[in-house]
Amino acid sequence: MPRKPVVHFRLKPEDATGYSLIYLQFVYQGRRLFFSFGQAIKPSDWNEKKQRVKNKQTTTEDGKFALNDLLDNLERICYKTYSESLKDGIPEPVVLKEAMLQFVDKNHHPEKEKSSKPTLFSLGQRFVDGEIKFRGRDKSKSSLKNYHAVLKHLKDYATYSKSKVDFETINLDFYYSYVSYLKKIKKLAANTIAKDISILKVFMGEAIDLGYTDNIQFRHKKFFYQEEETEHVYLTEQELHKIYSVQIDNKKLDQVRDLFIFGAWVGLRFSDFSNIKPENIVKIDDDYFIKVITQKTKELVIIPCNPVIIEIFEKYKHNSNMLPRTISNQKFNEYIKEVCKLAELNELGRLSSRPKDKLWQLVSSHTARRSFATNFYLQGFPTIDLMRVTGHKTETSFLKYIRVTKLDTAKRLSQHIKENWETKS
After folding, report:
1. Vertex 24, ends 148 and 157: CA angle to 5°?
2. How far apart are CA 110 and CA 118, in angstroms?
3. What's this model's pTM, rounded to 2 decimal places?
4. Which helix (H) or strand (E) holds 33?
């Protein structure tokens, strides 16, 4: 006998700000309904067993209703619509979804009934939904997550400050207050705040282009938050060889090692080098190349395969793409540290901000891409040609990947002095 359909409330994976969207799940008679209604919380505030928010006083994002009351109402409407629709046959998920949407729009977004006038929040939602594009191109998933995070921050700020946030209120007074809120209340890092302000200016720039406002105060030179330079490691070719040569008996770690080494020799982001398809590997004049359109920038890059990559292809020739199977970025970052520990990458003090950490503790999936860019840069390979391979559009963005330490610079200067001295003598 089939189980009675039950409404469940689940959390989506948390975004970069630590919040997770709540969604309703209803599985019934061979059909599945997933309904997201724009409410998000921190996973630590969620009672998984009761499928409700731990603090009953927690409100919806607009601050007008108890969030648990909204969940109760959506559950009630879902069951009611399902039961009433059965007399005409099994309802499609869209029927149930429409009933809940009408409730949400009527009770939680009454402004939709009052006016269709665009607002900063409605424009921000169009960015989140992927409707606003750049030269016709879809935005990456990471960009959409960033838009969602900023839109939530703006809504939270409006509730916290009890002030209106819209096109005409975005001025220097707002900027000072909003930045203070992000720092003291949200406790965001400097670079996260800088990205937040940058995206807000993108929203406002689009509003100008669409004719929604003529407020250009966001273009004031003071309406800017300076990023802090962050430290990241790269691995030298000798260290990469050490990783590639170490004996690993664990199959999972062995595959992660090979995929990391592949990434370090092609210079792609994890999202690209972990998802290479057979058609991305092409053979031209007896040489192999990786030919792929990158997920983030949608740029076509063509990268030659060195002998190490060919060895990896041979090792995994039983797979269609001749590479190890991919895993999640989170698991990859966990395993590659274990690999580097086995390779005895134990140098201390590679980062001044983490002087007590050993090198293996600092390695992540993105270290592969930084290692590629830095190693070839140090070898004197032309920057403009490297950018064609890495897919960077500006030299400024490319140079952020170059992790040349003061010791590296000193060694290069020392070598230059020796060569000059020998020439003179």
Report:
1. 30
2. 14
3. 0.57
4. strand 31-41
The two structure tokens encoding residue 149 = 């995070």
Beta bridge partners of 319: none
CA distance 174 to 177: 5
Residue type, 188: L
Please answer whether residues 71 and 23 qualify as being in contact, where contact means their C-beta atoms are separated by less than 8 angstroms: no
Backbone angles phi, psi at 34, to 5 degrees: -125, 120
CATH, domain 237-413, list 3.40.50.1000, 1.10.443.10, 3.90.550.60, 2.20.25.90: 1.10.443.10
Short-list 87, 88, 97, 99, CA closest to 26: 97
DSSP strand E in 42-122: where? 46-47, 52-53
Query: Per-residue pLDDT tens for 125-180?
Result: 999 988 888 777 787 777 888 999 999 999 999 988 888 999 999 999 999 999 99
Which class is domain 120-219? mainly alpha
Cα torsion angle, 156, 162, 166, 172, sign: negative
Angle of helix 141-161 versus helix 190-210 axis, rounded to 10 = 90
Residues 59-73 pLDDT 10s: 887 777 889 999 999
- How far is CA 118 from each of CA 112, 143, 174, rounded to the nearest angstrom? 10, 22, 20
> For the stretch 34-59, what's the b/e string if a residue is b when 16 or more beta carbons lie within 10 angstroms of its beta carbon?
ebebbbbbeeeebeeeebbbeeeeeb
Q: Return d(Cα 153, Cα 185) in angstroms, integer.
A: 11
Separation of alpha carbons 75 and 384, rounded Å: 57
Task: Name the maximum alpha-carbon separation found in the chain.
Answer: 99
